[in-house]
């Protein structure tokens, strides 16, 4: 029983230390408020498009920790999600559960209200990412670790995609 108590105390200290490091690095973790997720497949969110090398991109929003997207290491990775409802994005949660895969490091979050297919053929999505129809919501750097990380949006705008 003492071993278990010691392990729990050690885990608690590690969590506190990680939270302090995350706050210092601009990352925010924890259940600080109840938010609605508009990106769950079960709630009506969809994957509009992804880079051509991505296999099973819908796994990014299926909620199953045992499923994942496969991508070539050299690929320029991107994904367009259609949220289940129009809303203001306050934060993005990035969850990396795979133990032996490469991790996301630097990433951008962009949004818009109109459907991206209005820009042109779907095969040309990356060409339009820098157009004025896509609003930059934030650029972020993720910590190189397994688990969930929350990123606050510096610019809050109402978006659908």
UniProtKB/TrEMBL annotation:
Q: Which domain of life is it from?
A: Eukaryota
For the keyword Membrane, the answer is yes
Q: What is its main location?
A: membrane
Q: Which UniProt keywords apply?
A: Membrane, Transmembrane, Transmembrane helix
Query: What biological-process GO terms show up in the record?
Result: protein folding in endoplasmic reticulum
Q: Low complexity bias: where?
A: 1-17
Where can this protein be found? Endomembrane system
Residue stretches making up the SUN domain:
16-161
GO terms for cellular component: cytoplasm; endomembrane system; membrane
Q: Where is this region: Disordered?
A: 1-28
Q: Which InterPro entries match?
A: Suco/Slp1-like, SUN_dom
Q: Which PANTHER family does the UniProt record give?
A: MEMBRANE PROTEIN CH1 RELATED (PTHR12953), SUN DOMAIN-CONTAINING OSSIFICATION FACTOR (PTHR12953:SF0)
Protein name (Swiss-Prot/TrEMBL): SUN domain-containing protein
């Amino acid at each position: 029983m003492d071993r278990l108590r010691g392990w729990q105390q050690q885990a608690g200290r590690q969590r506190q230390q990680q939270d302090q490091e995350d706050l210092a690095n601009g990352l925010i973790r924890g259940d600080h408020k109840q938010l609605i997720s508009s990106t769950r497949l079960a709630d009506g969110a969809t994957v509009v498009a992804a880079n051509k090398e991505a296999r099973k991109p819908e796994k990014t929003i299926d909620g199953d920790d045992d499923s994942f997207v496969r991508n070539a290491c050299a690929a320029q990775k991107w994904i367009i999600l259609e949220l289940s409802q129009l809303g203001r994005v306050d934060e993005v949660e990035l969850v990396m559960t795979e133990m032996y895969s490469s991790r996301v490091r630097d990433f951008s979050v962009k949004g818009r209200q109109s459907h991206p297919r209005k820009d042109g053929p779907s095969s040309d999505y990356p060409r339009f990412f820098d157009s004025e129809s896509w609003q930059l919501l934030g650029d972020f750097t993720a910590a190189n670790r397994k688990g969930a990380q929350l990123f606050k949006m510096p610019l809050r705008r109402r978006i659908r995609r």
